[in-house]
Design goal:
four-stranded antiparallel β-sheet, about 30% strand, elongated, Pilus assembly protein TadE
């Protein structure tokens, strides 16, 4: 019974931390001036947020979709594969993929170096 309680607490907490990392990454991407910088900023921001939250991803991907035109929206999708032992603090075999996304609006009163971010994805 105690194992179920521990797992039930860590799962939602980890998802909440991933949602927060996606939020921070989307905001960082929306402030970048170029698509390459937006993807790099999103990736580094998400990595730092997950490290601060104590989430260790076995595999980690960041995708950015959108445009850097003022007033447009940039969406960042994050996928993090974690071991079940990390979620339950028990030696359980297997993994699960936690996913989160967030959209941020690009400031309409700034100038962008390039109009379109297109679609990008990067696996660190």
């Amino acid at each position: 019974m105690l194992y179920l309680i521990v797992y039930s607490e860590r799962g939602p907490e980890s998802r909440m931390r991933l949602d927060d990392a996606a939020h921070q990454a989307a905001r960082a991407a929306s402030q970048a001036r170029t698509p390459a910088a937006a993807i790099a900023d999103a990736e580094s921001t998400a990595t730092a947020a997950l490290a601060r939250a104590g989430i260790s991803c076995r595999t980690f991907t960041v995708e950015m979709i959108g445009s850097l035109q003022p007033g447009s929206t940039v969406t960042v999708d994050i996928a993090c594969t974690v071991g079940l032992e990390d979620l339950s603090m028990l030696p359980l075999p297997g993994t699960t993929v936690l996913e989160a996304d967030f959209a941020a609006v690009v400031d309409r009163y700034r100038a962008a170096a390039t109009a379109s971010a297109g679609e990008g994805s990067r696996t660190p």
